[in-house]
Amino acid sequence: MSRIKDAFDAVAAAIIAQKDYLSDIDAKAGDGDHGFNMARGFRAAQEKVDEMDDTSLPGPVLIKIGKALIQNVGGAAGPLYGAAFVKAGEACDEETRMNIKSFEKLLAAAIEAIQSRGRAEQGDKTILDALIPIHDCFLPENVEDKNLFEVLQEASKAAGDGVNYTKEIPAKKGRASLVGERSIGVEDPGAVSTMLMYRALYQFLKR
Questions:
Q1: To the nearest whole number, what is the mean pLDDT of the chain?
Q2: From residue 2, how far is each of 6, 52, 56, 62, 84 by CA, in Å?
Q3: Which H or E run contains 205?
Q4: Domain ranges for the chain
Q5: Which one-letter DSSP state was computed for residue 186?
Q6: Mapping DSSP to helix (H, G, I), strand (E, B) and coil, where does residue 178 land?
Q7: Could you say which DSSP state residue 137 is in?
Q8: Would you call 147 helix, strand, or coil by DSSP?
């Protein structure tokens, strides 16, 4: 068993366990299927990773996950999360380690992929409202004299703050944008998914 595969299994389990909750949030301003779509995609990704002969390197695993999400998650989330995982995988090289610098690099690649694919920015009530605050915690100017686990913990809080922020703003992208101001007061399901994934990874690494 590789630690990379175990980490992904922990992330997938968190999404699958919360599928009803995520769909309930989505139903308040969207189609109501976000959780079910995500659970289907992550189960498919687990199957693809299980088929891999070698899961010791993060790059190939992340790319395999991303492609499975693109093929199996319906709605807008599949292409966005899929592109994020693929680009993060492509950003991996022989320098990629379990350290602050590598986290920053892979998160930056994921954000760039989502911005490019979704034409979204922070403040549009999307995945990015959780993912960008997570990434910011790993920037060189924010990590001085901190170890990896201190930064991971700060990023976990930042993810939650990002989700709370999405409750205060109207949606500018996706199906929720059709209800405009009426989406205020509801968290963005993509931001919640992002927080759940990150916190599952954080809890796994803490063990």
A1: 92
A2: 6, 11, 6, 14, 22
A3: helix 189-206
A4: 3-206
A5: S
A6: helix
A7: T
A8: coil
pLDDT in tens, 93-144: 999 999 999 999 999 999 999 999 888 889 888 999 999 999 999 999 999 9
- Angstrom distances, CA of residue 163 to CA of 51, 86, 97, 116, 144: 34, 24, 28, 21, 26
Helix H or strand E encompassing 38: helix 34-50
Helix (H) or strand (E) holding 91: helix 77-91
The pLDDT tens digits for 69-91 are 999 987 778 899 999 999 999 99
Residue 186 has which token pair?
Answer: 């509801």
Q: What CA–CA distances, in Å, run from 29 to 172, 189, 193? A: 12, 10, 16
Structure tokens at 24: 């309930």
CA distance 38 to 190: 10
Is 101 exposed, middle or buried, given 0-12, 13-18 or 19+ CB atoms closer than 10 A? Answer: middle
To the question of domain 3-206 being in CATH 2.40.30.10, the answer is no
Q: Which residue carries 């399901």 as its tokens? A: 189
Q: How confident is the model at residue 162 (pLDDT cuts 50, 70, 90)?
A: very high
Q: 110 near 131, Cβ under 8 Å?
A: yes
Q: Which two tokens stand for residue 164?
A: 């709370």
